[in-house]
Backbone:
């Protein structure tokens, strides 16, 4: 049985176009556009809002599955790490900075996909 590295040690792709393509085939174009807009808004609010552990934990939890479903695997991993740091009461600086970098990257892709 192969060992599984923790998410923070895996090299997750920032964006998996194949995963996104599968979702794009399932959803009507207008619904996908609406979903991307909502995802982008949630991402901006999570990344730019106040540094309140409970708010960050809740936002990160929601983004874990949404990001993964849309193909943002790295963002999903960084969201999971941020949620865990909030749950553990750990310092948030490193996890939040990694999350924000990944969120910025994802927002750029969302903008491109929305055009």
Residues:
């Amino acid at each position: 049985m192969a060992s599984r590295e923790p998410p923070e040690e895996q090299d997750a792709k920032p964006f998996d176009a194949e995963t996104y393509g599968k979702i794009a085939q399932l959803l009507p174009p207008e619904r996908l556009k609406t979903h991307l807009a909502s995802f982008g808004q949630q991402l901006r609010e999570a990344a730019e809002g106040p540094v309140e552990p409970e708010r960050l934990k809740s936002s990160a939890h929601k983004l874990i599955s949404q990001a993964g479903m849309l193909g943002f695997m790295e963002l999903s991993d960084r969201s999971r790490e941020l949620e865990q740091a909030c749950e553990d009461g750990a310092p948030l600086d490193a996890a939040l900075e990694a999350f924000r970098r990944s969120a910025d990257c994802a927002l750029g892709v969302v903008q491109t996909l929305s055009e």
